[in-house]
């Protein structure tokens, strides 16, 4: 099977020739793998001696070479590869596509870098880079915390659908699929997470109970753009050979032991927006993958009814997310993606333990198809490369 055929078989509950795999990691892991795999000088890599990448490039060829060396079956086409806001809309600064801490795939990721070091994304979220012993990460800085009413929110520079240029979709897909066909999913974005990051989590959660018009307005504005982006991106992809297989969106609505909000509040405040995203993907005949960390089990039947096909990332330490139970209860209608623990197993375990756990998940979740082997989130900077390489040992699959 080609990688595309392999993943499509698995997520459609048919047995593939082997269990497909995916890979997501923080930039420090990508850089370390480039060096270990002797790929640091790959043409176009900003990390090696070759010329730095510029805005004419959609996919980092060096990071793409890492995926091919690990025999990864999945690729990601992302909404923030194609940002093109009007000049000056965010004030003084310059676009940055490659040196972005949140970048976890070979796709470029748009940020607006300001002279003070602050970075903005297309929705207006602001980030500063924080460093620790292992690496660095982006820390969110809320920008709508002072808003007192919907009228205040209207003054935020909300993006418009024309702030994206989708003409580069064919070139991006071609760069990923050179020589074969991979399973490509379109990363559409987030509603609930971006909304609370703009407002601030504490205020947003209180607003949901006390001033629901404020969170509802923010999520409406985000959803309008995400839905239109799905239509435009997939229409462009269809004209370029229809190489996109799936739409992926993400919203963490659960913590380690329970949901972040009640089921009733989720139904009232969040579900309608998620349904709009799912329906947009379905209108183009695409499968849907949804990401939420945490103890999501109470919502899984609803997600299936709404049209979700694949659940990610299966946080193994969260209540109710045991793989065998998920497969038993939902495996007939839902495929699974992830499951390899990034908190304890990958950073602290041995390569032998990583292999044993991967084999267990392939056996429990992958029986008869229905599973894509991957980490339970981005592989973090403190993970030994021996454990990363063990996870992608082809004997596991």
Architecture overview:
The protein is α/β, with parallel strands linked by helices. The protein has a single domain (3-77, 149-396), classed as TIM Barrel, CATH 3.20.20.210. The chain is 37% helix and 15% strand. The chain has helices at residues 3-11, 27-36, 61-69, 150-154, 169-176, 192-199, 201-210, 213-239, 263-283, 300-306, 323-330, 345-348, 351-365, 385-391; strands at 74-78, 94-96, 111-113, 119-120, 126-131, 136-141, 183-189, 244-250, 287-291, 310-312, 335-340, 371-375. Strand 8 (244-250), helix 9 (263-283) and strand 9 form a beta-alpha-beta unit. Helix 2 packs across helix 3, helix 6 (192-199) crosses helix 8 (213-239) and helix 13 (351-365) runs parallel beside helix 14. The longest helix is centred in the middle third of the chain and has 27 residues, at 213-239. Mean pLDDT is 94; it is low at 43-50.
Strand content: 5-15%
Task: Summarize model confidence as the mean pLDDT.
Answer: 94
Instruction: List low-confidence stretches.
Output: 43-50
Report the order of strands and helices: HHHEEEEEEHHEHHHEHEHEHEHHEH
Write the layout of secondary structure elements.
Blueprint: H1 3-11, H2 27-36, H3 61-69, E1 74-78, E2 94-96, E3 111-113, E4 119-120, E5 126-131, E6 136-141, H4 150-154, H5 169-176, E7 183-189, H6 192-199, H7 201-210, H8 213-239, E8 244-250, H9 263-283, E9 287-291, H10 300-306, E10 310-312, H11 323-330, E11 335-340, H12 345-348, H13 351-365, E12 371-375, H14 385-391
């Amino acid at each position: 099977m080609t990688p595309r055929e392999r993943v499509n078989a698995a997520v459609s509950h048919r047995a593939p020739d082997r269990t497909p795999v995916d890979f997501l990691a923080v930039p420090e892991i990508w850089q370390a793998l480039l060096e270990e795999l002797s790929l640091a000088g790959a043409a176009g890599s900003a990390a090696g001696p070759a010329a730095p990448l510029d805005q004419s490039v959609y996919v980092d060829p060096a990071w793409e070479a890492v995926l091919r060396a690990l025999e990864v079956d999945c690729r990601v086409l992302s909404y923030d590869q194609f940002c093109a806001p009007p000049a000056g809309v965010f004030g003084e600064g310059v676009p940055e596509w490659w040196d972005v801490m949140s970048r976890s795939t070979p796709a470029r990721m748009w940020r607006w870098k300001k002279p003070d070091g602050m970075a903005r994304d297309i929705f207006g979220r602001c980030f500063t880079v924080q460093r620790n012993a292992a690496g660095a990460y982006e820390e969110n800085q809320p920008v709508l915390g002072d808003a007192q009413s919907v009228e205040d929110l209207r003054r935020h520079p909300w993006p418009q659908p024309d702030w994206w240029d989708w003409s580069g979709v064919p070139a991006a897909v071609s760069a990923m699929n050179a020589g074969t066909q991979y399973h490509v999913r379109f990363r559409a974005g987030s509603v609930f997470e971006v909304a609370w990051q703009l407002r601030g989590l504490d205020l947003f959660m209180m607003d949901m109970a006390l001033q629901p018009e404020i969170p509802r307005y923010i999520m409406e504005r985000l959803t309008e753009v995400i839905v239109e982006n799905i239509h435009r991106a997939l229409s462009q992809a269809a004209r370029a050979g229809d190489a996109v297989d799936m739409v992926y969106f993400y919203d963490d609505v659960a913590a380690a032991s329970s949901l972040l909000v009640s089921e009733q509040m989720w139904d009232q405040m969040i579900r309608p927006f998620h349904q709009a995203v799912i329906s947009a993907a379905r209108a183009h005949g695409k499968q849907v993958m949804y990401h939420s960390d945490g103890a999501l089990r109470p919502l899984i039947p609803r997600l299936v009814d709404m049209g979700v096909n694949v659940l990610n990332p299966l946080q193994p330490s969260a209540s109710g997310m045991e793989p065998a139970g998920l497969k038993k209860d939902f495996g007939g209608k839902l495929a699974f993606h992830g499951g390899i623990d990034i908190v304890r197993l990958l950073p602290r375990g041995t390569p032998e333990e990583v292999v044993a756990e991967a084999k267990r998940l392939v056996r429990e979740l992958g029986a008869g198809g229905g599973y894509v082997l991957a980490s339970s989130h981005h592989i973090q900077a403190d993970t030994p490369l021996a454990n990363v390489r063990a996870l992608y040992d082809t004997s596991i699959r």
